[in-house]
Amino acid sequence: MKLSHTEVRKGTIISLNGEPYEVMQHAHSFKGRGGSVMQTRLRNLKNGTLLQKTFHAKDEVEEASIEKEDAFFVYANRGKCIFAKENKERLQIDEKSISEKIPYLKENTPVTILFFNEDPISVSIPIKVNLKVKESPPGIRGDRSQGGTKTVTVETGALIEVPLFVKEGDVIEINTETGEYVRRVQD
Fold first, then answer.
1. Under 8 Å CB-to-CB from 69, ≥6 apart: which residues?
2. What is the CB-side half-sphere exposure of residue 41 using CA atoms within 13 A?
3. How far, in Å, CA of 171 to CA of 187, rounded?
4. 53 CB contacts (<8 Å, ≥6 apart)?
5. pTM, two decimal places
6. Distance separating alpha carbons of residues 107 and 184, to the nearest angstrom
7. Which pairs count as long-range contacts for 155-163, CB under 8 Å and 24+ apart, including other chains?
8. How far is the C-alpha of 131 from the C-alpha of 154, rounded, in Å?
9. pLDDT tens digits, 92-128
């Protein structure tokens, strides 16, 4: 399906030169007699490279034909991430293409695998995940007029900024789109 330049939005997956790209950022601007343009930042779903591209009013973009299947994360090893589908079939995806999602993946995390031309190219992960705090430095008391924060290590090895009251062993909810602490989960 063809998209006009104004239909290119964050999260849209388009096809450029036979490669699938996800729109990471977009900014629409109007330049007087020059017409409107859409400035985008695109990420190649096959190899993870970033690209800046400007689309003009006359440009049409091909929406990529993406198929989706549910699966679970199994493990990562030697630059590959392994996923298992419901029928136990295993698929592997290059770590470089999903590097920003790996810090939020633990064993059995449900994901949606994206296929382009029948090849697995990327995954879609839940917006919020619960991870256990493995290492937490003690909170330093000080100026309480502003909320204090500290950096903790969660079970996947990711470093997350959290409030001072979070301690080792707590389960916290993290927004995977921003990498930010959301709340402490009560067990």
1. 85, 112, 113, 115
2. 5
3. 8
4. 16, 39, 40, 42
5. 0.74
6. 21
7. 155/106, 155/131, 156/102, 156/103, 156/104, 156/105, 156/106, 156/131, 157/103, 158/103, 158/104, 158/131, 160/131, 162/133, 162/136
8. 6
9. 888 887 888 889 998 888 999 988 888 888 888 888 9
Task: Find, among 117, 143, 112, 142, the residue nearest to 127 by Cα.
Answer: 112
Render 121-177 in DSSP notation, one character per residue. Answer: EEEE--SEEEEEEEE-PPPPP--TTS--EEEEEETTS-EEEEETT--TT-EEEEETT
Retrieve residue 169's tokens. Answer: 């062993």
The single residue listed with the structure tokens 């979070």 is 166
| 57-90 tens-digit pLDDT | 788 888 888 888 999 999 888 888 899 988 888 9
